[in-house]
Amino acid sequence: MQSHEVLKQAADKIGVKALAATLKLSPALIYKWCQESDANDPDASGARNPLDRLADIVRETGDTAVANWICHEADGFFVANPVLSNPDIETELLSNTQQMVRSFSQLLLTVTKSIEDDGQIEPVEADRIRDAWELFKNTVESFTVACERGLFHESQKTRNGNG
To answer: Is residue 45 a contact partner of residue 35, using CB atoms and an 8 Å limit?
Structure first.
């Protein structure tokens, strides 16, 4: 789905006029954001929208903090798609599985350290638990996406020794 389609779908939930009023912008601008924009096509009626601009920021800076912040605002979190770095599927699978176990162990260790001194979890300790939890979620989500993308699947040709 393209950015203007995402914005149109979101705006349609409450109405363009209501969204424009909330954002203190003109309904005409919101309508333009919800139309396709093409800098190379002078006849395109849409305007560059905030989603396109945010994507440019992430792409240009290489920093996913903007994406993570938006995900946090939506009560979620950002997980980058995994990159298979090792052509040896079995080694990569084992390495990823071990990373999940390490990450979960780190989470448990963080919780244990937080409660072992006084049986309570203080705000600073809760922040450490959140960090460990985010790392664990990211690790497991990356592994799951890699599985879904078939990154740990050998081709029949490879299994038969022909590749």
So the answer is: yes
Q: Tell me if 163 sits within 8 A of 155, measured CB to CB.
A: yes
Q: pLDDT for 51-107, tens place per residue?
A: 999 999 999 999 999 998 999 999 987 877 766 555 566 677 888 899 999 999 999
Tell me the residue range of the domain where 100 lies: 89-159
Residue type, position 133, single letter: W
Are 69 and 94 in the same domain? no
Q: Are 145 and 79 in contact (CB under 8 A)?
A: yes
Residue where a domain stops, chosen among 22, 40, 73? 73
Instruction: DSSP for the chain, please give it.
Output: --HHHHHHHHHHHH-HHHHHHHHT--HHHHHHHTS---TT-TT------HHHHHHHHHHHH--THHHHHHHHHTT----PPP----S-HHHHHHHHHHHHHHHHHHHHHHHHHHHHTTSS--HHHHHHHHHHHHHHHHHHHHHHHHHHTTTT---HHHHTT--
Task: Give the pTM.
Answer: 0.58
Query: Which residues does 91 contact at the CB level (< 8 Å), separation at least 6?
Result: none
Same domain, 19 and 46: yes
